[in-house]
Prior knowledge:
- The protein has two domains: 7-72, 2,3-Dihydroxybiphenyl 1,2-Dioxygenase, domain 1 (Roll); 80-139, 2,3-Dihydroxybiphenyl 1,2-Dioxygenase, domain 1 (Roll).
- With 139 residues, the protein is α/β, with parallel strands linked by helices.
- The strands form two sheets. The chain has a four-stranded mixed beta sheet. A four-stranded mixed beta sheet has the order 5-8-7-6, covered by helices on one side.
- The radius of gyration is 16 Å and the shape is elongated.
- The chain has helices at residues 16-27, 37-40, 90-102; strands at 9-11, 30-36, 52-59, 62-67, 83-87, 105-113, 117-123, 129-135.
- It starts with 8 loop residues before the first strand and ends with a strand.
- It is built from three helices and eight strands, in the order βαβαβββαβββ.
- Helix content is 21%, strand content 37%.
- A hairpin with a 5-residue loop joins strand 7 (117-123) and strand 8 (129-135).
- Helix 1 (16-27) runs antiparallel to helix 3.
Amino acid sequence: MTLKTATPYLILGGRAEQAIALYREALGATVETLQRFGDVDGSCPEARRHHVMHAALRAGNALLLMSDGPGEGPPPSFGAVCVALDWDDADQARRSFDQLAATGHVVEPLFDAPWGALFGVVRDAFGVVWMFNASKATA
């Protein structure tokens, strides 16, 4: 058996709509799929019908999957996970980093890393930690 791919699946505690808007702006993502609980389950309580059951966003070659999750409030903790982004354009990486940081928290400011890249870490407004890595050659 060979692992085909690994894709981050973000559980956003009822804030998927806001996250989708941010990721569209900051990462240039496009929505490939958006299903709401009410679209697939007619017996879904009215209060949850509009919640995002599953969404797929494409940002360049990367696929991000997300959901509001099982209910309101903070998402359940599934362990320590970061989403690593590898950019071929350092200027775009800086812009995206700054957009996520504007409503989030800079964990590690962008800096010239010893492995020959621009690197930094930001936690966005939804608690998702993003690791940015971009070739210095495009800086």
